[in-house]
């Protein structure tokens, strides 16, 4: 056996040990809230960051975090899972505000942060612009994980997730252009920048659409749940790598593929049981990857660098909060005016304060070329701001939601959904008891007792449901929307069955969708 082979095997063994160590620590942190109840006040992802910070303070480094590790290994599954669960019908409703936030919000963030650093700290323009570019995108990993854990109202989550998923491509384009400008390999020309942006986004959407629709129609030809599940995993990584190799945005590509497979391919090419299995698989994978990413974010902090650049970090935090406020409130008002988006002031406040930064910002900062003298300052500043948004903003977002009354309705919705599920289940039990043949070994009186017991529970649930509907009128509309979604799913599953059996050669457009749309227009 050659020396090179032995070294390769030793490196693989060392990497495996590091991976198992990180995973063991992450999963141990996941069990803390079950052992110590007060840990439940801290969202799981932020608890991981805090534990990582503790390890960094003790100078225990679990693994060397590289930008390629984040972008190539961790980011695709997290983006795909978020896009898979993002309903196109809800995303389409808020496409205008999301697009405005994603495009103009990045411009406001980069220019605002750069101006503040240049004027207040006196740093070089190159450093200021690169810091602004690194921090211009709200991180989808951080935001999606936090909002889901807190149980934020669906539309608010869609607004935040949509902006986070789409503005990353713009931030990457801005960052790469500014790096070229700092190195002297690019010139500041608006036409060139716009053309480059359109090419990067266009390639991402094109490759993502090709792979998404290709796999959607491919899965119509067979019913192999494990193969279909594996294809979604291959599509997430494959789309990212192919798009990046072609010069496009891998993030935009993965998001496009996830949206298509989640909203189109899963309906026409997957059995309901397969669709559920795939969703559960991606839920597990997102939890698995999140557990590693957030722990490593805290573990990579260098306290000496943070202390040396504390003034720059404080100024940047102030600039980030101010530019985020200008973007959210200003662009929100513009969207409300142009598209009648009706984004309320409390929702805008949560969007402002919930604009966390995380792994994407860190990956961009670590990607700054070594030959740039300001590289250490840029990395320290970005890490400092990320740390502030995750710990200060992240830990106070729940309190803000409660103060604005946005979690009260959400808890009522959860209670309402639980009551409805129990009501349906007990009605089925009652139906079974009424239709079941009396067994000779069971006293008929016992059947009557059970029927009365179940009926009493059903009446109690109905009373609670009526009470919730009276206290929260929006629950009535929620019930109607849930029924519509169930009816649309039944219609789509029926068409898919006909296509798989060969009785249909092409997908039929949903009839109910047009009916519901017409009803809404007539109501308005």
Describe it for me?
The protein is mostly helical. The chain has three domains: 3-29 and 34-40; 42-404, Na+/H+ antiporter like fold (Up-down Bundle); 410-523. The protein has 21 helices and no strands. The longest helix has 33 residues, at 3-35.
Task: Describe the protein's topology.
Layout: H1 3-35, H2 44-57, H3 67-84, H4 88-93, H5 95-121, H6 125-134, H7 140-150, H8 154-183, H9 190-218, H10 225-245, H11 250-268, H12 272-299, H13 303-308, H14 310-339, H15 345-353, H16 359-366, H17 375-403, H18 406-435, H19 444-471, H20 474-500, H21 511-523
Task: From the structure above, extract its key features.
single chain; 524 residues; mainly alpha; Na+/H+ antiporter like fold; 3 domains; 81% helix; globular
Q: How many helices?
A: 21
Q: Based on the structure given, which CATH architecture of the largest domain is correct?
A: Up-down Bundle
Per CATH, the class of the largest domain reads Mainly Alpha
Beta-strand content: under 5%
SSE pattern: HHHHHHHHHHHHHHHHHHHHH
Percent helix:
over 70%
Tally of separate domains = 3
Overall radius of gyration: 26 Å
- Structural class label: mainly alpha
Report the sheet with the most strands, covering strand number, pairing sense and barrel closure: none
CATH topology of the largest domain: Na+/H+ antiporter like fold
**Mean pLDDT score:** 82
Name the poorly predicted regions. Answer: none
**Annotation, overall tally of beta strands:** 0
């Amino acid at each position: 056996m050659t020396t090179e082979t032995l070294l390769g095997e030793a490196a693989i063994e060392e990497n495996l040990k590091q991976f198992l160590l990180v995973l063991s620590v992450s999963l141990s942190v996941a069990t803390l809230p079950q052992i110590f109840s007060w840990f439940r006040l801290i969202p799981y992802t932020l608890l991981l960051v805090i534990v990582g910070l503790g390890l960094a303070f003790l100078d225990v480094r679990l693994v060397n975090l590289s930008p390629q590790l984040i972008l190539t290994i961790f980011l695709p599954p997290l983006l795909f899972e978020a896009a898979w669960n993002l309903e196109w019908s809800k995303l389409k409703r808020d496409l205008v505000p999301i697009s405005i936030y994603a495009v103009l919000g990045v411009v406001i963030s980069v220019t605002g942060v750069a101006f503040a650093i240049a004027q207040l700290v006196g740093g070089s323009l190159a450093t200021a612009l690169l810091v602004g570019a690194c921090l211009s995108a709200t991180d989808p990993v951080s935001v999606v994980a936090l909002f889901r854990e807190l149980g934020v109202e669906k539309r608010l989550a869609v607004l935040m997730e949509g902006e986070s998923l789409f503005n990353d491509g713009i931030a990457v384009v801005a960052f790469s252009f500014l790096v070229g400008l700092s190195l002297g390999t690019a010139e500041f020309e608006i036409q060139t920048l716009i053309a480059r942006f359109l090419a990067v986004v266009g390639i991402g959407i094109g490759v993502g659409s090709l792979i998404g629709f290709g796999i959607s129609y491919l899965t119509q030809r067979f019913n192999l749940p494990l193969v279909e599940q594996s294809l979604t995993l291959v599509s997430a990584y494959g789309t990212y790598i192919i798009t990046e190799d072609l010069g496009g945005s891998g993030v935009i590509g993965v998001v496009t593929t996830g949206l298509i497979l989640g909203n189109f391919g899963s309906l026409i090419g997957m059995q309901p049981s397969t669709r559920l299995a795939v969703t559960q698989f991606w839920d597990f994978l997102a939890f698995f990857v999140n557990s590693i990413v957030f722990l490593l974010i805290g573990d990579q902090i260098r306290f000496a660098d943070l202390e040396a650049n504390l003034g720059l970090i404080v100024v940047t935090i102030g600039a980030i909060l101010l530019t985020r406020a200008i973007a959210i409130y200003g662009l929100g008002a513009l969207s409300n005016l142009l598209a009648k988006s009706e984004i309320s002031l409390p929702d805008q406040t949560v969007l402002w304060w919930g604009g966390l930064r995380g792994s994407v910002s860190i990956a961009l900062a670590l990607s700054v070329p070594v030959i740039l003298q300001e590289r250490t300052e840029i990395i320290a500043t970005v890490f400092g701001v990320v740390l502030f948004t995750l710990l200060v903003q992240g830990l106070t977002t729940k309190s803000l939601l409660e103060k604005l009354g946005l979690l009260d309705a959400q808890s009522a919705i959860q209670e309402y959904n639980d009551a409805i599920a129990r009501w349906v289940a007990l009605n089925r039990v009652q139906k079974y008891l009424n239709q079941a043949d009396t067994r000779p070994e069971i006293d008929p009186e016992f059947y009557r007792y059970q029927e009365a017991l179940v009926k009493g529970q059903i009446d109690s649930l109905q009373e609670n449901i009526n009470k919730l509907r009276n206290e929260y009128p929006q629950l009535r509309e929620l019930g109607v929307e849930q029924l519509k979604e169930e009816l649309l799913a039944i219609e789509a599953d029926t068409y898919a069955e006909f296509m798989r059996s060969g009785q249909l050669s092409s997908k039929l457009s949903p009839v109910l969708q047009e009916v519901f749309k017409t009803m809404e227009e007539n109501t308005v």
